[in-house]
Specification:
The structure holds two protein chains of two kinds.
Chain A: H1 2-11, H2 28-32, H3 37-65, H4 76-111, H5 120-142, H6 156-159, H7 164-191, H8 204-236, H9 249-283, H10 290-303, H11 319-347, H12 356-379, H13 381-387, H14 391-421, H15 427-453, H16 468-494
Chain B: H1 2-8, H2 19-23, H3 34-69, H4 71-78, H5 83-108, H6 112-143, H7 161-194, H8 204-228
Helix pairs in contact in B: 3-4, 3-7, 3-8, 4-7, 5-6, 5-8, 6-7, 7-8
Classes of the chains: A mainly alpha, B mainly alpha.
Chain lengths: 552, 231
């Protein structure tokens, strides 16, 4: 205790009551030039939410188009461009940066009791690079659009018109933003942990962020060189992917999925990160199998690098390669299931509080399980040949990406909203919003499993009349889903109309970010945090962490 | 003074921030000690180097596969490269890596003048490399040995040689950009050294720039046999 006092006096970060990171720097320039991880996280948050909105509107338009078997509201060419943009924006501008760069940037240093990430200026640079990449991606709509799908498969992508080159360069640029965030997190986790915080006292959020960062660092450069080669092929016909001039189009698929399959884990592992925080806090119970959850994240990161060929079962790769990739794909199910069972075991006999974040976490468990298990179907070669490029695939990855990551992101957004903005949202509306999202999501996408298994191909503009009832059902679902998300946006934004009312620790969390004020002060803590108990230590008999020094 | 700093704060950076550290602008506010800052920077640099290796790794894999698909074209095309100039550049870069190491060693021992000299030699070597590369490029341009659709070399007996030159220019070009970036980093470190910012307690920028320079060197060591010595 004496030590803590000394640190406080020496550190000398005195601040007035009511002063926090949001209001102590003033003016636009203090935001744009900041190196504070919290402000950068918030700027990331608004940016990704903007793109979530844009790509969400595109999704609603797609579903309206698919309401009838013939043209409904757009032409076939527009349809190709809209589904490409929906996918590219959701993946590169929303989901990948959503948890690490937005929420992670804000929360991770707080969880470590650090004042900032290891390289604050690199962090700001990452945000600017994201903005430049986002402008280029949006620019590609204005300069001709793209109709290749988000996967940019050759040889179509080397021959089609439009702004494919600009979009690929946007992806190249966005990759750096992702790499910089990853490098920053690894260095931060290694070197800036609070005194007493060993690797096994880290919140599981941090473990998952570590695994994510490793994938970002190891996979993204390969995507960078791939899209650069694609760009060169389009510009100068260098003869690498275009079969007419001696190139190999399947090589592009290998390169692309060598990144993009690990990228699936860049997207889902952060979802695990959030769920591992929410479930113990709202079950008031120590997490079950801490080390198993921690190591399973790392295991997924490693095995995830060895399974890319399961996207290519019908591309002409050898049957032996297919069989090996199929087997390795099944391996991923093990660490994923380890997590799910540990979360369930954590809830077992816990004192479960069904607040909005927990409702999202439970939704995640159900939706991710469906998404993960259908992934096993698709990993089996014989089944995949039948289901490849059908709506079954579309449903599967939406269950993982949206039902998994986006639902977890929404849970995390509610969980840390009081910490980020110092304001509580309307709990009743929160639960209604979550219910609408859950029902709408299932109506929209479960239907697509059935559509796919009956042979409806993905990315088709027109379809046979017999599929219309299911397509229409799916479209109605998208409206429920959309209304749930708009309701959520409305009550979250409404919190800014009232004064800051959030307590320091509204949920009774034990991780360090709940020791900071809501919202935190500019330098995070007005004392130097020293870890005295584990991140999920909910046993009542243990002595509490020393109370922080009172405000001056 | 700085020497005492690192000793009175214990390794885990526990509890007490040293007073002096607060006033040294070279120590960023979120680090407790120079040692912690140095370790973090070093981790960051190594991770960055890993991404660079993977970036070039994609090109190496692409090269290997296309060479396997067009072995004769690659063999024939590489005869137009000048092995002697390639070997000269390899020696120049290897030597510059040595001087980069010596610059770090000098900085570690607070020998400011020696650091300056070694950094300057490294810079001169880097410039020499680019000049030699420039001569080679010029020769290729003259003969029409260019990437992709620009290839117009006359008298080829084996088709598809342009694919080799696509890789040649992409790989050496990307490497050349890295040489330029390395020169920028070394110049920046040189200026800071002239200002007297480095000594035995704080020399991490010299160390990091040298690490980066070794990577630039290492990539060339792989590029040279890959492109110039096909059998």
């Amino acid at each position: 205790m004496a030590d803590v006092l000394t640190a406080n006096t020496l550190a000398g970060h005195h601040h007035n009551p009511g002063e926090n990171y949001l209001n102590s720097p003033k003016g636009l320039m203090s935001w744009l030039g900041t190196v504070d991880h919290k402000l950068i996280g918030i700027m990331y948050l608004w940016s990704i939410l903007f793109f979530f909105f844009v790509a969400g509107i595109l999704a609603l338009l797609l579903r309206i188009e698919l309401l009838t078997p013939k043209q409904t509201i757009m032409t076939a060419e527009q349809y190709n461009q809209v589904f490409t943009l929906h996918g590219a924006i959701m993946v590169f501008l929303f989901i990948i940066p959503s948890v690490p760069a937005a929420l992670g940037n804000f929360v991770l240093p707080l969880m470590l009791g650090a004042k900032d990430v290891a390289f604050p200026r690199l962090n700001l640079l990452s945000l600017y690079i994201y903005w430049v990449g986002a402008l280029m991606a949006v620019g590609s709509i204005i300069f001709g659009g793209i109709d290749t799908g988000w996967t940019f498969y050759t040889p179509y992508s080397t021959t089609t018109g439009g702004a494919v080159s600009l979009m690929t360069m946007a992806v190249f640029v966005l990759g750096f933003s992702s790499i910089f965030t990853g490098v920053n997190f690894v260095a931060t986790i290694h070197k800036l942990r609070a005194p007493g915080q060993g690797w096994f006292q880290l919140p599981l959020f941090v473990w998952s962020m570590y695994a994510t960062a490793l994938i970002q660092i190891m996979a993204t450069p390969v995507l960078g060189i791939t899209v650069l080669l694609l760009f060169m092929e389009r510009m100068f016909h260098i003869g690498i992917f275009d079969p007419r001039i001696g190139g190999d189009p399947v090589l592009f698929q290998h390169f692309f999925w060598f990144y993009s399959h690990p990228a699936v884990y860049i997207m889902i592992v952060p979802g695990f990160a959030i769920i591992s925080e929410i479930i113990p806090v709202f079950s008031k119970k120590t997490i079950f199998g801490y080390k198993a959850i921690a190591f399973s994240s790392v295991a997924i990161a490693i095995v995830g690098f060895l399974v890319w060929g399961h996207h290519m079962f019908v591309s002409g790769q050898s049957t032996l390669a297919g069989a090996i990739f199929s087997f390795l794909t099944f391996l991923v199910a093990i660490p994923s299931a380890v997590k799910v069972f540990n979360w369930l075991a954590t809830m077992y006999r816990g004192s479960i509080d069904l607040s909005t974040p927990m409702l999202y976490a439970i939704s995640f468990l159900m939706l991710f399980s469906i998404g993960g298990l259908t992934g096993i179907y698709l990993g089996a070669m014989a089944v995949d040949v039948h289901l490849h490029d059908t709506y079954f695939i579309v449903a599967h990855f939406h269950y993982v990406m949206m039902g998994g990551t986006v639902i977890a992101f929404l849970g995390g957004l509610h969980y840390w909203w009081p910490k980020m903005f110092g304001r509580m949202y309307n709990e009743r509306l929160g639960r209604i919003g979550c219910a609408l999202v859950f029902i709408g999501f299932n109506v929209t996408f479960f239907t697509q499993f059935i559509l796919g298994s009956r042979g409806m191909p993905r990315r088709y503009y027109n379809y046979l009349d017999q599929f219309q009832p299911l397509h229409a059902f799916s479209t109605f679902g998208s409206w429920i889903l959309g209304s749930g998300l708009f309701l959520t946006a409305a009550y979250l934004l409404a919190t800014f109309r009232k004064p800051m009312d959030a307590p320091k620790n509204p949920w009774g969390g034990k991780t360090l970010e709940w020791e900071a004020d809501s919202p935190p002060i500019e330098h995070n803590f007005d004392f130097e945090p020293v870890l005295k108990h584990g991140p999920y230590d909910f046993r009542p008999e243990r002595p509490k962490l020393d109370e922080p020094v009172t405000h001056h | 003074m700085n020497q005492s700093l690192t000793t009175d704060v214990d390794v885990r950076g526990e509890h007490h921030l040293a007073h002096e550290a607060e006033h040294d602008s070279r120590l960023q506010h979120h680090f407790a000690t120079f040692e912690q800052q140095f370790d973090a920077a070093k981790i960051g640099m190594w991770l960055f180097l890993a991404t660079e290796v993977l970036l070039f790794g994609g090109l190496f894999v692409g090269f290997a596969l296309q060479q396997a698909a067009h072995p004769l074209a690659f063999l024939e095309a590489h005869h137009h490269l000048d092995k002697r100039l390639g070997a000269l550049n390899t020696v120049v870069l290897l030597f510059s890596s040595f001087t980069a190491v010596m610059a770090v060693w000098s900085a570690q021992h607070s020998r400011r003048k020696a650091t300056t000299t070694y950094l300057l030699i490294t810079l001169v070597c880097a410039a020499m490399f680019l000049v030699v590369k420039g001569f080679e490029y010029h020769h290729k341009f003259e003969e029409g040995l260019l990437p992709g659709m620009f290839y117009h070399h006359q008298g080829d007996t084996v088709p598809n040689q342009f694919i080799f030159y696509s890789f040649y220019f992409m790989m050496t070009g990307l490497h050349g950009i890295h040489v330029l970036a390395g020169m920028g980093a070394i110049t920046w470190v040189l200026i800071r050294n002239l200002r007297g910012e480095f000594n035995s307690t704080y020399y991490s920028p010299v160390d990091l720039a040298a690490l980066y320079w070794h990577l630039v060197d290492l990539i060339w060591i792989y590029l040279f046999p890959l492109l110039y010595l096909i059998t």
